[in-house]
Here is the input.
Amino acid sequence: MSALTTSPPAQPAPPGFHLGTIPVYGEAILAPMDGFSDLPFRSLCRSFGSALSYTPFVNAMEVLARSPRTERLLAFDEAERPVVYQLFDSDEDRLLRAAQAVLAHRPDVLDINMGCSVRCVSGRGAGAGLLRDPRKVARLMATLSRALPIPVTAKIRLGWDAGSRNYLDVARAVAENGGALIAIHARTREQGYTGLADWDAIAAVKDAVSIPVVGNGDVQRPADVGRMRRHTRCEAVMIGRGAIGNPWIFQGRERTQVPRRETLATIRLHLQGMLDTYGPREGIILFRKHLTRYLAPLQPPGELRAAILAETDPARFVTLLHQLEPLPVPVAAV
Ligand SMILES: Cc1cc2nc3c(=O)[nH]c(=O)nc-3n(C[C@H](O)[C@H](O)[C@H](O)COP(=O)(O)O)c2cc1C
Here is the structure.
């Protein structure tokens, strides 16, 4: 059990929506992010209110090869449920075999990545590469949803490029072939992470299908969650980069509202989760990419910042961090 095995917040009734038969509480979800949405960060965000726990994308070929890296990516904590495993591949048969193999870990939901824009993934027809062939998407979703005992979902983009924004065809292919939910990152593969996300497209997907729709793109602040939901009528909103160094977004709190002392306590909690999951040496190094984002608003003096980021010993790290604590309020002389 990790140090972050805090219980999810008390669940309000009724659920926001259902994923198959699974009730989902809450309207904001931590996006799958390779290198970031691992067990410690997902657990933290889930305990702060993220409604679902998506793993980063996992290569179906690596699942079938039983790579140790894959086992680590698939590890989750019971308190994270509902847990969504995300797989990627271009080959239907391999995806099916990999999906059947990972069922042994008892995920709640299986998601297929249809949005990864990285050339080595999309270029071989996986990730956003699948968007080029909606009929293949239809076959894949039909095969998986028939064969698997858990809901199957898809995370898509708007299309391959500006000239092929076929997201409505893809969304229908998902919904009409057993898909239980569509998450849509409202950019094309060509856009990568640049340009404005097209929230009108999310609204159009919502109009086109009757399964739950999760909107994604350009949600940076708590107010954006409601803004996207009102604009698109989507069931929930997925938050990626806006949650890095800022899990409080799932509590609906502005980063500026989080007191310094609380920020430091959360850094320590997150670090402990990293140490529990990866061990002291690797845990502290892997934590650095989160740490830079946590530290930015605290504006530590340059030398202290550099020392904290370079520290490899957890105990010394905590001592250094302590130097960022707010000074005690002086007791008035009597
Ligand atoms: C570092 C990083 C890794 C990502 N890895 C994944 C992934 O494994 N699976 C996936 O579906 N999307 C992945 N994405 C895309 C995000 O889930 C999300 O769609 C995208 O960042 C847009 O949302 P945002 O504007 O809230 O960041 C990744 C994004 C980033 C920045």
